[in-house]
Amino acid sequence: MKPFRSLAAALLALAAASAFAQEAPDALVKRVSQDTIGIIKSDPKVQAGDQQRIREVVETKLLPYFDFERITALAMGRNWRQASPEQQKQLVEQFRQLLVRTYSGALAQYRDQTIEYKPLRAEAGATDVTVRTEVVRPGQTPVQIDYGMAKEDSGWKVYDVIVGGVSLVTNYRDEFNAQIKSGGVDGLLKTLQAKNQGTPAK
Amino acid sequence: MNRLIAVAALAGAAVLSGCATAPGQVDDPLEASNRLMFKINEPLVTYVAKPVADAYTAVFPSFVRTAVTNYVNNIDDLFSIVNDALQWKWEKWGNDMARVMINSAFGFAGLIDIASDAGIPRGNEDFGQTFGYWGIPQGPYLFIPLWGPTTVRDGTGSILRYVWSPTNEIPNVPVRNVVYGFVTVNEAPGAVEAMSLIDKAALDPYVFVRSAYLQRRRNLVYDGKPPPEKDEE
Q1: Helices B90-106 and B62-86 sit at what angle, rounded to 10 degrees?
Q2: Whose CA is closest to A58, among A170, A158, A168?
Q3: Is B230 exposed, middle or buried (0-12, 13-18, 19+ CB in 10 A)?
Q4: Cβ contact B65:B86 at 8 Å
Q5: Measured between beta carbons, which residues in chain B are less than 8 angstroms from residue A107?
Q6: I need a labelling partner for B4 at 20 to 30 A (CA). Which of A104, A120, A189, B19 fits?
Q7: Each residue's pLDDT expressed in tens, for chain B with a length of 233 residues
Q8: Contact residues of B toward A, CB < 8 A
Q9: ipTM greater than cut 0.85
């Protein structure tokens, strides 16, 4: 009976996973953010500001839904094709580290905000949508946070986050451009590495 | 005196916006001097704004700081009314009108934000956005130490807002100066916090701030729904 039961559990898990793959992008954003907020609010280590735990939450709960290769390629713009495959690999890894660190810090600042999810306006077969949310903080102007999402084989993935109209991809594209202009792709890589190691660039 | 400086600044801005600007790319013909200003700003934040912010938050409890923010917001709302009308946004106009009347009358000159508790949203329109709405371009980007990023267009709007601020009309001079002091110091904690976030996230803080500022303002001009920009992919 026991093996049978574990098989059933495995099948159930598989079914759940594929259900997530089919999940609509707005439903996904809602589920993932509510999950994460739930943890942030209840986990004593996160509450105490334990950076490692916060990063763990980010790695396991949020990152699976981000397509860092796409994010990096978009931020590189036309410079992406000029980078060698090895450079591309390193860029994705370094950029990922930078974003995780930055966003873990931001997440630790989370207080008593609530998130409102706007109705998704997209055509039936769309493979690229913007999921709109609004973060409401008591006594302050709400902040609009949008997610650029693309449909991939493994489900919907975030490729841009737009906070109050400021796109993460656009912001870093401007920075990357400036870096590449002065030091080439290698210069950009060096800056990213220095930044991630906590040493001042230049 | 105040006004004289403002008018002089405005004249300067007008001259600057007359400068030819490079087409396409980011409009930052003054990048060299802006970067210098940005560099000057860093120690000013560390050694002036930071201690001021720390002292301010230590001395004054949060309800006092909230009251100062509310006072400033109420004046911003007052200017929103004007700019809502200048942009023919009558729904926002109604909201901002109600906000200012309620907060000024029942919230002690705006110290308490009753209107937000009542769920009346802020229109958040300023002169810079009105200029943008009517098709006036941003003009050259500017970075001002201890003030932050702006452009010729938005900076002109900010000057108008300060020249016409009701705070200038407070008849009792010592009281007026105390209000000026609070309003100025109240900006410090936010500025310090923003700089520390930027230091974490940015590869080139100057470009980071410029890009974020210009995107943010564009988003505001289009009320959160900007048309897609031509991408260079």
Answers
A1: 140
A2: A158
A3: exposed
A4: no
A5: none
A6: B19
A7: 455 455 455 545 544 444 444 334 578 999 999 999 999 999 999 999 999 999 999 999 999 999 999 999 999 999 999 999 999 999 999 999 999 999 999 999 899 999 988 889 899 999 999 999 999 999 999 999 999 999 999 999 999 999 999 999 999 999 999 999 999 999 999 999 888 888 888 999 999 999 999 999 999 999 988 887 765 44
A8: 26, 66, 113, 116, 122, 124, 197, 200-204, 207-208, 210-212, 215-216, 218-220, 224, 226, 229, 231-233
A9: no
CA A45 vs CA A97, A99, A144, B79: distances in Å: 21, 21, 28, 45
Residue A102, min C-alpha distance to chain B (Å): 6
| Contact present, B154 and B128 (Cβ < 8 Å) | yes
Angle at A125 between CA A119 and CA A130, to 5 degrees: 40
Contact A105 B26 (CB under 8 A): no
This prediction has a pTM of 0.84
Alpha carbon distance A145, A45 (integer Å): 26
Question: What amino acid is encoded at B225 in this protein?
Answer: K
* Alpha carbon distance A56, A43 (integer Å): 12
CA-based nearest residue in chain A for residue B201: A102
Choosing among A82, A110, A129, A177, which should be mutated to test the B contact, i.e. which has the most B CBs within 10 A?
A: A177
Strands laid side by side in the A155-163 sheet: A114-117, A128-136, A143-152, A155-163, A166-167
- Alpha carbon of B124 to those of B110, B138, B159, B204: distances in Å? 16, 18, 17, 30
Distance CA B200, CA B207 (A): 14
List CB contacts of B44: < 8 A, sequence separation 6 or more: B145, B146
Largest CA distance in chain B: 59
Find the closest chain A residue to B200 by CA distance. A102
Q: Inter-chain contact B211–A175, Cβ cutoff 8 Å?
A: yes
Residue A42 tokens, joined: 């209840």
Q: What residues in A contact B125, CB-CB < 8 Å?
A: none
Which residues in chain B have Cβ-Cβ distances shorter than 8 Å to A188?
Answer: 203
